[in-house]
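User: what does the whole thing look like in 3D?
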Amino acid sequence: MKQVPAEYYQLMEQLQAVDFVLVELTLYLDTHNDDLEAINQFNHYVKERKRIKKAFESQFGPLQQFGNSYSGHPWNWDDSPWPWQI
Amino acid sequence: MNTHLKTYHPYVSPFDPCKPMLEKKYSTPPHLYMGFQPPNLPQFSPFEALKAGTLWKDFYDPWYGPNEIAEGGIPS
Amino acid sequence: MWIYEKKLQYPVRVSTCNPMLAKFLIEQYGGADGELAAALRYLNQRYTIPDKVIGLLTDIGTEEFAHLEMIATMVYKLTKDATVEQMKAAGLDGHYADHDKALFYHNAAGIPFTTQYIQAKGDPIADLYEDIAAEEKARATYQWIINMSDDPDINDGLRFLREREIIHSQRFREAVEILKEEKGKKKIF
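Assistant: Here's the predicted 3D structure for the full assembly of 351 residues, as structure tokens:
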């Protein structure tokens, strides 16, 4: 029985934390479109998310598909586990 | 500072079939007092924010059930 | 279009195999104030709302699907390895007879999901007030489920979801302020 290593959970939680900041800032900016400081913070975390996404995907495969992530060989998008299984 | 839990005391009839609950509580979370959110409110760190469910400290208002409160240590 | 991401919004954990909790939680899956109703409500309203708040409805509607997946994860984990005896003891005998372990869009009382839960009046203020009310009702539902649950990990996830209702309500209230504003006037905080 193959299980994901502890590092999977650590990297995933790093991504969840940064993505959560981005969700919060997105909703905030939807009603505060002139807040430059919040926009700068948003762009900072966009960069941060790219870094973590790359680190995660290089070890555990694509997070998104339809071309938003590169594929390994063989096609690894449909590899287990799925988010509700871990 | 506003409180985020209000109480009221329902009328108690001598004919009430269940043991009366003398005090009832209801939630009045911080957003009810915020108005249009001003810029630069204090923030949590990304990990704290994820755990709290919000980036902004002023909106943080966790709800705990009676089982959790009974076990102690958790602010009501 | 939408892009799926192989990631939950929040790390969902469940501490004990307790299918009884799944019976309550399904309220937020296919109930009147649940996450499916929320997602569909906002994503449907955005076609007939002023452009200034379309982005907000789109983004909150999208986040609601992430919440739906969190609830599904909790229900899945609570029932995945439950025996038929445990399902029956939890009052899920009716569900089991019809669906086995399959998730289904119904509420805690077993009433199937209906579009009646979703209002769309076409009047921007009426619709946003509907949305604010929906967020407060969902917040209350999470309170009642937390009150009944004795699983600390489930409660941790439910507290996150309840807090999100507070933020969504805040943003919808701000959307009302934006639509009320007189043209050319500067916002004062």
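In plain terms: The first helix of chain C runs from residue 19 to 25. Chain C touches chain A at residues 3-12, 53, 55-56, 59-60, 63, 69, 72-73, 76-77, 167-168, 171, 174-175, 178 (CB under 8 Å).
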